[in-house]
Write a structure and sequence with these properties.
Layout (H helix, E strand, L loop, with lengths): L19 E2 L12 E4 L5 E4 L2 E4 L6 E3 L7 E2 L2 E2 L7 H7 E3 L4 H5 L1 E4 L2 E5 L1 E3 L3 E3 L1 E8 L2 E2 L1 E2 L4 E8 L7 E8 L34 E2 L2 E2 L5 E2 L7 E2 L2 E4 L2 E7 L4 E6 L7 E4 L32 E2 L4 E2 L4 E9 L8 E10 L2 E4 L16 H11 L4 H4 L2 H10 L2 E9 L6 H4 L25 H7 L4 E11 L5
The structure holds 2-acetamido-2-deoxy-beta-D-glucopyranose (2 copies).
Length: about 450
């Protein structure tokens, strides 16, 4: 995630959140299996399931059906303050396919973009579960994470994302007494943007200074954010892709207020590195590598392999390199090599790559400032939760991924051009109207020691 605010477009006019549990709709987690592999290369299937984030859920009064949150505003009588609201309100179960356009089948997950039921839903965000009350925590160091993806139905302005964040395995239920919903209802999200659009954080409603979004009819931001380190394995559409570590000076899920959240002009003053250190092949100088008909042909599915290399080839070593491979049509494709004037050649993310890139592109090095890969290494020691989402971008129209960005720099300046999408593309209202049937398919997730999964 690159942008500061309102990253996720979620809809559901009648839907709200709360920290108690509603019982109007049964919560049944769709099954999604993954494979765990051993160094010999043999893999076994592990049962699992997914859960949709609490932010997308209907939030209503406990025991009833009066909305606590409607559109992008809170009900003032049910939610006069954070504590009262958490006591009064419940998040309900989800109709995954009917309301949210989410289907899981065997080892395959499809997230659809716009789903029209009684309301219009835009995008979704789901987490992989170990069991019905617990997110699966991955220990990524000295391991390899692999999945197949179909981005052929994702155009400019869309982002089918697969990433890891430092959420609590139980969604914060044991740390925060007023969180009665826990992981079973998808609570406890955090990311490196210090998400302020989360309705309940640390078991409390984010109602203080809640400001409805001017462009998103279902979203707003409160005075509290939820921060944690984030390893973006995959942020992509059919035009561009990036993988990006983002680090924080706080460890584990940590709420923020004020400057610590790094909102707006305070972007580089917060506890997290909002820019991250991204490897986007197009931005790094190989414009023929990723896209329809290119070396990695996005008109058809392919496999994405990410390796987390440590300094002593052991899971307890320090993370020093994040490597990327692709597999398509049975052919292993090495990552593209950087080709930027004045910068050495790299094909992976290391601290050296990050420092050279920030220098070459004249970007603020907020990644190094907050500890670089060493900080990512510490975050990985805690275990990280797998997130899969599909979203459009009310803050920056996804231009940071697939077009020219920032918009106040000339496209000819090094590091500005990131893909072939027009600078006018990616406006959420346009994307939702013109490409409502967009979707991403993630499948065949495999996890194991480096070299074991492909
Ligand atoms: C780790 O493994 C790589 C690849 O097998 C090897 O090149 C490297 O020397 C090893 N490093 C250490 C510290 O053992
Ligand atoms: C790898 O490094 C870690 C941290 O320094 C250390 O605890 C561990 O024993 C090392 N493992 C090996 C196999 O050298």
């Amino acid at each position: 995630m690159f942008q500061a605010t309102a990253l996720f477009s979620f809809t559901l006019l009648a839907l709200t959140y709360a920290q108690q549990i509603g019982t109007n709709v049964a919560e049944n987690h769709p099954s999604l299996s993954i494979s765990t592999c051993t160094s010999g290369g043999s893999c076994t299937t592990a049962a699992g399931s997914i859960v949709i984030d609490a932010n997308w859920r209907w939030t209503h009064n406990v025991g009833g059906s009066t909305n606590c949150y409607t559109g992008n505003t809170w009900d003032e009588s049910l939610c006069p303050d954070p504590e009262t609201c958490a006591t009064n309100c419940a998040v309900d179960g989800a109709d995954y396919t009917g309301t949210y356009g989410i289907t899981a089948n065997g080892n395959s997950l499809t997230l659809k973009f716009v789903t029209q039921s009684q309301q219009k839903n835009v995008g979704s965000r789901v987490y992989l579960m170990e069991d019905d009350d617990t997110y699966r925590e991955f220990k990524l160091k000295n391991n390899e994470f692999t999945f197949d993806v179909d981005v052929s139905q994702l155009g400019c302005g869309l982002n089918g994302a697969l990433y890891f964040v430092n959420m609590d395995a139980d969604g914060g239920k044991s740390r925060f007494a007023t969180n009665g919903a826990g992981a079973r209802y998808g609570t406890g999200y955090c990311d490196s943007q210090c998400a302020q659009d989360i309705k309940f954080i640390d078991g409390l409603a984010n109602v203080i200074d809640w400001t409805p979004s001017t462009s998103d009819p279902n979203s707003g931001t409160g005075s509290v954010g939820s921060c944690c380190a984030e390893m973006d394995i995959w942020e992509a559409n059919s035009v561009s892709a990036a993988f990006t570590p983002h680090v924080c000076t706080v460890s584990g899920q940590t709420s923020c207020t004020g400057t610590d959240c790094g909102a707006g002009d305070e972007r580089y003053d917060g506890v997290c590195d909002k820019d991250g250190c991204d490897f986007n092949s197009f931005r790094m100088g190989d414009t023929s590598f990723f896209g329809a008909g290119k070396t990695v042909d996005t008109s058809r599915p392919f496999t994405v392999v990410t390796q987390f290399v440590t300094n002593n080839n052991s899971t307890s070593g320090a993370l020093v390199e994040i490597r990327r491979l692709y597999v398509q049509n049975g052919q292993v494709i090495q990552n593209s090599k950087t080709s930027i004037a004045g910068m050495d050649t790299f094909d992976s993310v290391t601290d050296e790559f990050c420092n050279a890139q920030k220098e070459a592109f004249d970007d603020v090095n907020s990644f190094e400032d907050r500890g670089g890969l060493g900080a990512m290494s510490d975050a990985m020691d805690d275990g990280m939760v797998l997130v899969m989402s599909l979203w459009d971008d009310h803050a920056a129209n996804m231009l940071w991924l697939d077009s020219d960005y920032p918009t106040d720099r000339p496209a000819s300046q090094a590091g500005v051009s990131r893909g072939t999408c027009a600078p006018s593309s990616g406006v959420p209202a346009d994307v939702e109207n013109q490409a409502p049937n967009s979707q991403v398919v993630f499948s065949n997730i495999k996890f194991g020691p480096i070299g074991s999964t492909f």
